Amino acid sequence: MFAALLAGCAPALHGAAPVPLNAAWAIEPPAVYAEWWNRTEQCSGRTGDFTRVEFYAVADWHGQIYLGSQRAEAWWVRRGNRIYLPESALLREQLVRHEMLHALTHDAHHPADLFVRRCRVLSEATWADSSAEQPGRLATE
User: What is the value of pTM for the model shown?
Assistant: First the structure.
């Protein structure tokens, strides 16, 4: 059931950076990322050290980034606890929090309990469905 929803999320990588280093650059996480991290900790019941996550922007083509022939909206890489995000989506809360949840769980999988029911960050569809339940978010966001 969830396979179609996962098309935008590639498996987390255990090794080196998923993109050529000249296509990605380290970024200082925007201040709002700390708030999003806290929200993700709260919904997941997991805790982690936000300062240990490294964030990278990637030049993207229509919101997609690539590793060889694999395409994804974003990547979490276990080694270095790195999150790679398309330059055009650095402030897309659902996408950033999806990768943060991988960083908190240290797992590439998408358990429905966490990604769908509790945090609602599996996909844009689960995020949109939860907008009425989240204070401060409009259904059109």
Answer: 0.78
